[in-house]
Each structure stands twice: as structure tokens, then as C-alpha cells.
Amino acid sequence: LVSIGNICRSPIAEAVFRKLVTDEKVEHKWRTDSAAVSDWNVGRSPDSRALSCLRNHGIETAHKARQITKEDFQTFDYILCMDESNLRDLNRKSNQVKDCKAKIELLGTYDPQKQLIIEDPYYGNEKDFETVYEQCVRCCKAFLEKPH
Fold this sequence. Notes:
Blueprint: E1 2-3, H1 9-23, E2 35-36, H2 48-56, H3 70-75, E3 78-81, H4 84-94, E4 103-106, H5 126-145
Parallel strand pairs: 1-2, 3-4
Helix pairs in contact: 1-5, 2-5
């Protein structure tokens, strides 16, 4: 799960997905991680508002921001991102990887409410983080329900 800085949207999506697969008792079938297309926040914890939002829903995360690697494109089956800018960056990076096996998609393509883009809440408020959380829950549930 990828966003620009890996401190807001993607760690929320990662934590949501991890909780869903744990609740469904299928965590052994999934390797879940999140990363950034940029190197701006490498090593940092998620934004305090993201952590607070997750905590409000009973979810904890110890994620530290990292940048996506060539190995990610070779080992993950899916790389799901938050917006068109991420999608462009990831497609460009994947073209430089020899044996890219990852299917790169917008996480929002799975949203039953058809909200294709998960907007960056960084410059917003707590309500914007809650919107991201709700979108991630809808999209991750729908993604999990499809055959893989």
C-alpha cells in the first residue's frame, strides 16, 4: 500500500488491511506492508492524527515510513496506491525493474462507493483522516472479497 510519504494514508491502509486479514483468520496468506514513493519521511512514525484515528478504531501500528524498493516490485503480487500521482510514479519505477510481478492499481478501484482517489489528509483535520480510514476499510474489504 503506497502513498507519497508513508505517514498518513498508506499506514492507515496497511493497519486496516492487517486487521481485516487477522479478523478473517487469513493473515498467513498475506504479507502486508506500506511504503512511500518519496524518501521524505523514511524512519518516521505515522502522523499523530493517523495514529489517533486508528486508535479510535481499536487498531495499533508500529510502522516506520520507508521508501518502495525494486524488490517490492519483484516480490509483492499487488501494489495498491492512493492517487494518480502515486500511480504514475509507481508505473515509472516498475518500468526500471526487470521482473516486476506486482499488479499496480489504485486502492480506490475497489471502493463500492466509487471514490477512486484517497485524498491526502496531511493538510486537513481529524475528519479528513476519518474519511481516509473509512475509504480504506471499504476498499480493503472489497479487495479481500475478490478471488486472488
